[in-house]
Amino acid sequence: MNASPLDAAAPAVYDVARVRADFPVLATTVRGKRLAFLDTAASAQQPRAVIEAVADYHRSSHANVHRGVYQLSQKATDAFEGARERVRRFLGAASTREVVFTRGTTESINLVAQSWGRRLGPGDEILITWMEHHANIVPWQMLCERSGATLKVAPIDRRGELDLDAFRALLSPRTRLAAFTQVSNALGTVLPVREMVAAAKAQGALTLIDGAQAVPHQRIDVRELGCDFYAFSAHKLYGPTGIGVLYGREEVLRDMPPWQGGGDMILTVSFTGTTYNELPFRFEAGTPNISGAVGLAAAIDWLETLGIERAHAHEQGLLRRATAALSQVPGLRIIGEAAHKGAVISFTLDGVHPHDLGTILDAEGVAVRTGHHCAMPVMDFFDVPATARASFGCYSDDEDIAQLVAALAHAREVFG
């Protein structure tokens, strides 16, 4: 395995060039231009350590897990369950029984809606916020349609901040679950999740946090947060696609029926009935994404070696400088100006549709996300069809910002 520049002790000063050297894709060009990758919120690039960990698993350890008595299967099982223990430590969960592997945040939320949600009926309520990703809206709409429960939505203001008083007012003894993002993918807003969890618990409601945009940028302790469910995806965390995690408090998971049936989630099967496996396996039907779990564990190791807090401070510096630079671009409007933000800037440019803008920026080597960002209610609230979104990661640098600003100037020239 190739050594990573981060294998040595991290220096006192954040050396972004050293970090960038760990990401092979950043050495490539796009249309003959340096790649300025500013779409980390959609899917972060993978460092060499993750790529090599997945490749090494396929080279030397691949077999199906849990059911084989031969050495290779046991080796794969050890790697897979070792990844579960690594996630447990990363989240501060009490037990590996609380760590369920899924395909990602979306499947994690759907698992809760399809399993825990079976107990809901008319008169029950679910509370979300206006800034949720579709993955934290649609599953609850589907649940309410089949159960007769009611979905309530806490409002936001023109800065893109949650109205916390309105959120509290919408909670009631009928609220069964409050589900909310920790960091908005469309606006970058950091929500006051501790206060939200406490308010929901005071009404006897369970809580689910969509942590997809939070885990790469801040240290998470689910027991300190006090939430009942926490969901995230590996590909936001510098890991592979197709693998994610649902944390569930053990006493809550223990009372939930399986969602999907098949291999590995059972103890016994006959034509007269089935007994289900213990936690967390009853929620992991079928052959799992073994190499994805290995890659996720490697990504966690890599990020913690770098230092989550140090990376976050670097990203916040970029956010401040990029916000100042973009604010000077004529005709540019930043959408979402919350006091506390993740390293995300959504914006529009007068006279240029975001999709056209994305095409022009791509010609200049700048990769940004354009569209509604799976947050159409947010777009409706701000009365825009879509935005362009620049999002930063641990490897982003000031040259990325300069390249973005220059590309925007070119776009203004093209569109007059």
Widest sheet, order of strands: 4-10-9-8-7-5-6
Return residue spans where pLDDT drops below 50 for at least 5 consecutive residues. none
Number of helices: 14
| Helicity level | 25-40%
CATH class of the largest domain equals Alpha Beta
Rg to the nearest angstrom?
A: 22 Å
Return the domain count.
2
Number of strands: 17
Approximate strand percentage: 15-25%
Mean pLDDT: 96
Q: Give the oligomer, counting copies of the same chain as homo and different chains as hetero.
A: single chain
**What is the assigned CATH homologous superfamily of the largest domain?**
Type I PLP-dependent aspartate aminotransferase-like (Major domain)
| Topology-level CATH name of the largest domain | Aspartate Aminotransferase, domain 2
User: What is the CA-CA span between the terminal residues?
Assistant: 51 Å
Largest sheet: 7 strands, mixed
Secondary structure class reads alpha/beta
Overall 3D form: globular
| Overall CATH architecture of the largest domain | 3-Layer(aba) Sandwich
Please give a structural write-up.
The protein has 416 residues and is α/β, with parallel strands linked by helices. It has 2 domains: 16-48 and 307-414, Aspartate Aminotransferase, domain 1 (Alpha-Beta Complex); 52-304, Type I PLP-dependent aspartate aminotransferase-like (Major domain) (Aspartate Aminotransferase, domain 2). The protein is built from 14 helices and 17 strands. It has a 7-stranded mixed sheet, with helices on both faces. A 4-stranded antiparallel sheet has the order 13-14-17-16, covered by helices on one side. The protein has a two-stranded antiparallel sheet with strand order 1-2. Strand 8, helix 8 and strand 9 (229-233) form a beta-alpha-beta unit.
